[in-house]
Amino acid sequence: MERLQKMLAHAGVASRRKSEQLILEGKVKVNGQVVKELGTKVSASDTVEVDGVKLEKEQKVYYLLYKPRGIISAVTDDKGRKTVADLFPHIPERLFPVGRLDYETSGLLIMTNDGDLSYTLTHPKFKIDKTYVARVKGIPVKEQLRPLERGIVLEDGKTAPARVKLLSADPKQSKAIIEITIHEGKNRQVRRMFDAIGFPVQKLKRERFAFLTLHGLNAGESRELTSHEVKLLRVMAETGKIGS
Ligand code: URA
């Protein structure tokens, strides 16, 4: 559900303020009825008309982006930094990221204008597996990784058990590469989990999101999801069977 003036603005009818004006002037109908209330909530299934002309529903689009480091996972930035939306200059639809990756984190990010799917994919109750590869300072032994597998208490609560695998270790430079799979999306979760066990993350990349991987893409590149992939994400989310 979305506020009527926001929907009009998103559909490209007019700016948010001008859209409010149109509503107050009685020029907007929802399901055949004139609506003058600014807070009115509408959903994609409602029919909206402006000056008697039906609003075209924006086609839903879905992209898989290999987000590079040094870009923010937002559509705008008040500090003027480059955003993930800037990587889609030729796409007319308003794409936004599904969840977020830190400025310094690279990896797989879904971009879409489908708010409903975005909601299910980011809601913790749908338990979507996300796999990260972290380079950490120091070389943890199995026992030191165990707290991540059990769940670890962070300031905003205990994390769910993670799957953790030591991929390689470099004793000379005292660093290790570790794969970790979680299904939550707390802010800076992976970095905070490794901080909590005393092995700070130096570099972080998300390699998988559910069954999707970065296969075939370089940093900064994207591809459209196939309709089958989108269907699969929807079905899995609906049946709670998202996983890798
Ligand atoms: N965990 C983090 O610490 N950073 C991310 O960007 C994603 C997960």
TrEMBL record:
GO terms for biological process: enzyme-directed rRNA pseudouridine synthesis. Keywords: Isomerase, RNA-binding. Residues 2-59 form the RNA-binding S4 domain. GO terms for cellular component: cytosol. It comes from the Bacteria. Its EC number is 5.4.99.-. InterPro entries: PsdUridine_s_RsuA/RluB/E/F_cat (IPR042092), PsdUridine_synth_cat_dom_sf (IPR020103), PsdUridine_synth_RsuA/RluA (IPR006145), PsdUridine_synth_RsuA/RluB/E/F (IPR000748), PsdUridine_synth_RsuA/RluB_CS (IPR018496), RsuA_PseudoU_synthase (IPR050343), S4_RNA-bd (IPR002942), S4_RNA-bd_sf (IPR036986). It is an enzyme of class 5 (isomerase). One of its GO terms (molecular function) is RNA binding. The keyword RNA-binding applies. Belongs to the pseudouridine synthase RsuA family. This is Pseudouridine synthase. It comes from Paenisporosarcina quisquiliarum.
